[in-house]
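User: Could you check the structure of this?
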Amino acid sequence: MRKLFSSFLLLMTLLVCSCGKESFELDREDIIGLWQIVQAKFDESASMADWELGDTFFTFEDNGLFYGAGYFGDVEGTYSVSGNTLISKIDNQPFFIYEVTGLKGDSAEINAIQQSNHQKIWMIWKKIEVEVVPPMPPLSPESYFKSEENIQVFINRIYKNLVEFIEQENKVLQKYFDGTYSAISPINRDVSLLYSSAYSLLRNINYAYQAINEVVVDNKEDYLSHLRVIRGFLGYNLTTLWGNVAYFGYVLGADDEFPVMPQSDVLDAVIKDLNVSLNYKFGNIQESYYLNSLVAVILRAECYLSLGDSGAALQLLNDYTATDIIFQYNVSSNSEEWVTLFSKGYYDLLKLEASGTIDGLPEKWQQAGISFGYWQMLKRIGKAQEVTGCPAYRLLLPFPESEVEYVPNLQQNQGYD
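Assistant: Sure, the predicted structure tokens are below.
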């Protein structure tokens, strides 16, 4: 499976660019080959930093096809060259526009704009020399997702992206508890990375959902329900971090508007996704390293609590019995370190909150050693400012400056203008 996954990584994904030096004519031969991101920044005023979001590769072939894999998802498509600009497309729809602003030896300076959300990224690519590049026949979603093994490979990739999102969320929220929340701003790199990782993950989830929904495969409904609980997890965290956000369950076209919704509507949409996932089996697998049906129960209860319906949350939690470890994840494929995200302790604390036992709740979370979800709980019970000392407007994160600039219906959260 690892070999298949490696092949798939070298088969699909696309990348980003847009810079600003003296332009030049790019020879198509210059870009053909296998490239890797080694440095990047998400804000023009920031300094280039080492790429820390996992190995990300992309291949441009002399027949006009491109493949990529890594942080931005797994994709395949076509590309064209005009002047110093690469234009990549998927199904004839613009995906990324790359401006090559520097090219020397095996290094390229790239500015990119992702067409679905107008995200700008400045990058440095390094060309990877390989003795033999095996031919990669294009795989359509219809052919790729007919294999359950390939579905599992793709879902494993989604989980890798999910862990990166969780780790980045922890990094940003830690600033509230170590007193450095003033560093959180519309041009903060950590905030930009968190936001872009969330929507990269959402696009991959929706891509897989649409593809699996259109093929004949065993356990289809289990796979689709599984993807919906992952999407629900992401949507709940997105709206508790930013408030009014875009949450959607389809593949967003290049000309589609970002569907930003009020927070209450996002929570309602998340609940609908989670309703479908309460009884899924995912091929009769309920291991704690998958976002299983108990996670759907927890997230749905948190949505009810966020909407002020503690009665519905308590009734739901009383209908199920929690296991000691509900969900845990491996920090990396090369590590033996496992992090428990949801546990019986987490479940029991939610039941306390739903029953109206608010006094001393933050202390009980700390005594239980539970950090994930702590910020959301503090906000729900109105204790976030008291515990962290942050001003009211900082209860929501700012949207990255580049997003507000290029997404017409996205309004910056108050206090960050």
